[in-house]
Amino acid sequence: MSKKSAKNGETVKKYDIHVQSDSKNKPKNFLGTLKRFLKHMYPQRKLLIFVVLCGLIGTAMMTVGPLIIGRIIDVIQLQVDRKLAGLTVDLSGVLRILGMLLCIYAVSSVMTFFQWDIMARVTQDVVKSLRKKVNDKLSRMPLKYFDSHPRGEIMSCMINDADNINLHLQNIILQTVTSLVTFVGILVIMLVVSREMTLVTVSILPAGAAIATLIVKRSRGYFRAQWKKTGQINRHMEEMYTGHEVVRSYSYEKKAMEEFDEINEDLFFVSRKAQFISGTVMPFLNFVNNFGYVLICVFGAYFVLNQRITLGIVVSFVTYSKLFTQPIVDMANIMNNIQSSLASAERIFDLLDEGEESFEAEEEPEKNVRGHIEFEHVYFSYSPDKPLISDLNLSVEPGQVVAIVGHTGAGKTTIVNLLMRFYEVDSGKIKIDGKDIRKITRKNLRKLYGMVLQDTWLFNGTIRDNIAYAKTNATDDDVYSAAKRACAHDFIMSLPNGYDTVVGEDSDNISQGQKQLITIARTILSDPTILIFDEATSSVDTKTEKMVQQAMDSLTKDKTSFIIAHRLSTIREADVILVMENGAIVESGSHEELMKKKGAYHTLYMTQYSANR
């Protein structure tokens, strides 16, 4: 974080930026993650072998190039000497060598083309496979996983981590092959041509490697600090612009701008440091390489004068000295990319290793379900050390409307989660028509329910498609009929495009209450046996609430229904009202019966009544 201090009338900017290595960018188990990732690449092994072969051939050809150029220089030097001696000059040998060099570079280019083209396909196939596995995994995950993990974290794993692998994987493999072949190939060629000159060339290697390693290590911390500060500034901008109405209503603009300026200043500092330090790699290496050129020229001239090597060999070694240090720089970057990619892979593997809902064989859907629901000595807790529901017993007759009320955290929504088998009971039984719901597949069980939640969910599409989401083979007449029963038809027809109006989760062309009516129409179209309303009217105004209530009354007719509500005025007509406290039912009965008891329900109702007067 940045701080300011005054000294001699000047404002001095002090930075306290942490640039230590970020463990999030390194895998916890490097070898284990690497082995597992290689298994995911195993189906592409044939293509990978071909990529490696192309890399070997192409890089080997490029490595031989400087040696042939040196040979051309020697041939030209020979012809110059012949001309000076008055002899006939023959350049046919030069032309043959030039043709050979052209062929070598052409083959190298073709191999490089195939290498990149095939590796792009391999990379995309691997990433596509990982994304599919994550998507399939998420479809089998229990609700408790999503309740205990932020949505952004899950999306980051599926999108950002997969993209990070996609970004680095292709370069990692290609650069690794190229760097290793270049390093080994050049070393072998130099040793064969001249051991003395090889020693001169290799003498600069330790200095170049030390400088590259030191600078890359130093800049890595600043780059990670840069990524962190970039995330902070993105988050700040998202909060300020998404909640701009709140920002302005509380006159927070000046403070928000100051916070932005502070983060932006810190981002400028670490970005400048990162770019400056990483940018010093090439100047330092160029200095080392140039010093190496001097050594090669000095020793090369000495060896040429003593006729131990030719001038062409000296020229070749000048080129090789430049190529020889590049793999060192590349490998340092490759190791950083490998760590980052394996860290992303490890997070994906951690998700894939999470527990999932048990496999259930397909079976015939339940038929002629009446909707008689029983809770028999049900115990449940989200965590073992915090029991929530203890010895819950409840019997709901077919067609009854049951309202569940209570303070926040009383266990109302937990009842819904257990009915839907989003969570399994710790002990006891929940039965539908006398059958334990654990003996019904989750798919068939959830077909029996229709849910209308407080948070409406509409996907990007037309109103018609959103209503028909529950029944893909629904006709237009089915959609219109459901919308009319949900009291949504009139407002839909008033829209410019009617049922073809495009809406979405964040659409502002329809109100929150209208979205709720669309979700009710969707539920009506699915024609469920059992209905669940979880705070369905809590986020709408009084007028819209009456419309939603009318739609709910039409929907609950002759169906077993559970209504969770904070507004007690909306559940006065319920057949049974259950009052929950700390996971237990403390009162039950009709509205009139509970008001006469003057217990917990009476207190809740009178509190709301007094607050609304």
Structure description:
This protein is an alpha/beta fold and 613 residues long. It has three domains: 26-192, ABC transporter transmembrane region fold (Up-down Bundle); 195-308; 373-612, 3-Layer(aba) Sandwich (Rossmann fold). The chain has 20 helices and 14 strands. Strand 1 (2-7) and strand 2 (10-15) form a beta hairpin. The strands form four sheets. A six-stranded mixed β-sheet has the order 8-11-12-5-13-14, sandwiched between helices. It has a four-stranded antiparallel β-sheet with strand order 4-3-6-7, with no helix packed on it. A two-stranded antiparallel sheet has the order 1-2. It is 62% helix and 12% strand. The model is unreliable at 1-16 and 19-23 (pLDDT under 50). It has helices at residues 30-41, 45-84, 92-140, 143-148, 151-193, 195-202, 205-242, 244-249, 253-279, 281-305, 311-352, 412-419, 442-447, 463-467, 476-485, 489-493, 512-526, 542-556, 591-597, 600-612; strands at 2-7, 10-15, 373-380, 389-396, 401-406, 427-432, 435-436, 449-453, 461-462, 502-503, 530-534, 560-564, 576-581, 584-589.
